[in-house]
Specification:
By secondary structure, this protein is α+β, with helices and mostly antiparallel strands. The chain is built from 15 helices and 20 strands. The strands form four sheets. Strands 1, 2, 3, 8, 9, 10, 11, 12, 13, 14, 15, 16, 17 and 18 form a 14-stranded mixed β-sheet that branches. The protein is elongated.
Length: about 525
């Protein structure tokens, strides 16, 4: 075998090997599987893992914005007119959150922690001074008491006390008082005869520098899908506020951690103590945050839909007679009976009748939607906006003359926007990890690429070999190297002198074969 055919043979074998191996690795997802298994082992809630420290103390800054609805026509509303409100805010606070008393439990398969939060006011990101700005809003302590008391005697006593201390349907307080607490005259009066009543009321009272109870989480070591999933809250596997097991279920994480390798067709569950329930989110679209690809998940309308629209929500009805419409959740069972109703801001995704009942409501997707932007490979939160509104159910209550002219209304008090965007240092770490994942996952393509290059080389060699072979054939068939000419095979000689000298007929030439002179 000559040198050139050997080269062609070697290139062909190499090309075939590279292509077969590369395509097999790509189709078999071998390196992708290896990389995914590596991620599953590293993204776990154990000491020394890649994510444990950032889970305990999240580095990106979190901001809590408070928007209040200032009532501009309280007297007219009490006489039956439509309420008018204007939005005031934001009053922004930097939220510092960390996991406290972190302890491995159940042989290291789970971890317990307390979610501690503290808030620091940021004047530069706010519209005014919360210690000075006044807001006229629903008097929540008064409505809580009026809904709590039963019977003619208790109702009469409370009604008299409300009149004596000047407690009405509405109250005017500073933003600081509404958020962090103030001594309410009615509660203070009632607390003198009932030590269980706290005279201080505030929407964020006792929530600065405190926690919401002990959580026990799955580490994700046994099953990556359980990473960060809540096992128990305050020692309970299920809630007791609602009327069905499904409604009382504690599902998903607490919103601070999500498993890696997310898919677009899965639901993300989050348990939130503020709503006293678990909610779910569904994929909406692909977004990009600081160069990091992310899946946007958002709660669909069905999460707060009425029992008629979503029968699974029937368990959230306090009583069959107290089922509210789509877009609302009455959370009085976990708010000591206070007629507090949760919704999305401006009744976004709610029935239009709630929007129409209050002048000043204008739901907009951009400003009022709750969403999570998660990197699908790592499960890291790259951007989030948690938005919720606090409302009070106002209606006519027997025994309280001040409510005589009222119709049932879901009255907005304030809404919050808890937001976070991944910081630059975390961006660099995530991008580095994604680069490694991409390179390793696509490593088989190197084999395919080299195989393709070798295929091109093989084709070139075959074409050149074919061209050279054709040139050789052309030389052989046009003029053989060792063939003799006609002059060599034939001699010319005159037949006779006569013929040679014949002037009429010219010269006659005889052809005789040439003989070997040595014969």
């Amino acid at each position: 075998m000559t040198r050139r055919p050997c080269a062609i043979y070697a290139v062909g074998v190499t090309c075939a090997t590279l292509l077969v191996v590369g395509i097999a690795l790509v189709l078999g997802q071998v390196f992708v599987t290896l990389m995914h298994n590596r991620l599953k082992k590293e993204i776990v809630l154990v000491e020394g893992s890649r994510v444990f420290e950032s889970w305990k103390r999240p580095p990106p800054p979190v901001y809590m914005e408070y928007f209040f609805f200032n009532v501009t026509n309280p007297d007219e509303f009490l006489k039956g007119a439509k309420a008018k409100v204007n939005q005031v805010g934001p009053y922004t606070y930097r939220e510092y959150r960390y996991k406290d008393n972190v302890t491995m439990v159940k042989n290291g398969t789970m971890v317990s922690a307390y979610n501690t939060k503290s808030f620091v006011f940021m004047r530069e990101r706010s519209v005014g001074d919360p210690a000075v700005d006044n807001i006229t809003t629903v008097n929540i302590p008064a409505w809580a008491v009026m809904n709590k008391v039963k019977g003619f005697f208790q109702t009469t006593v409370v009604s008299f006390k409300m009149s004596s201390v000047g407690s009405g349907v509405f109250t005017t307080r500073t933003v600081d008082e509404l958020l962090w607490g103030y001594e309410d005259a009615l509660l203070n009066n009632l607390a003198q005869s009932n030590t269980e009543i706290d005279p201080i009321f505030g929407l964020m009272y006792k929530k600065n520098g405190t926690h919401s109870g002990e959580f026990i989480y799955h580490t994700g070591e046994q099953n990556y899908m359980d990473y960060g999933r809540v096992e128990t809250w305050k020692g309970q596997r299920a809630l007791t506020f609602w009327t069905t097991n499904q409604s009382n279920s504690i599902n998903g994480s607490d919103g601070s951690a999500f498993h890696p390798l997310l898919k677009k067709n899965e639901r993300i569950y989050i348990f939130t103590p503020d709503l006293c329930r678990s909610i779910y989110m569904e994929f909406e679209k692909v977004v990009d945050v600081k160069g990091i690809p992310a899946y946007r998940f958002t709660p669909p309308r069905s999460v707060l839909a009425s029992k008629e629209e979503n029968p699974a929500n029937e368990g959230f009805c306090v009583t069959p007679e107290q089922c509210l419409g789509t877009g609302l959740l009455k959370v009085s069972p976990c708010r000591n009976g206070a007629p507090v109703v949760a919704s999305f801001p401006h009744f976004y995704l709610g029935d239009t009748k709630y929007v129409a009942a209050i002048e000043g409501m204008s739901p907009e997707r951009e400003h009022h939607q709750t969403y999570l932007d998660l990197n699908p490979t790592t499960g890291v939160i790259v951007r989030a906006n948690k938005r919720a509104q606090v409302n009070v159910l106002i209606n006519r209550i027997t025994g309280f003359p001040i409510t005589r002219g009222l119709n049932e209304t879901i009255f907005p008090v304030m809404f919050i926007n808890e937001s976070v965007v991944i910081d630059d240092a975390s961006v660099a770490r995530v991008q580095k990890l994604l680069l490694i994942v991409t390179l390793v996952s696509h490593f088989p393509l190197i084999f395919v690429g080299l195989g393709a290059i070798m295929l091109v080389v093989l084709i070139i060699l075959l074409l050149r070999a074919r061209k050279q072979k054709n040139e050789v054939k052309q030389i052989v068939f046009t003029k053989p190297v060792y063939a003799t000419t006609a002059e060599d095979d034939t001699s010319y000689s005159p037949v006779s002198d006569k013929e040679k000298d014949d002037p009429q007929n010219g010269t006659y030439i005889g052809l005789t074969p040439t003989t070997d002179q040595q014969a």
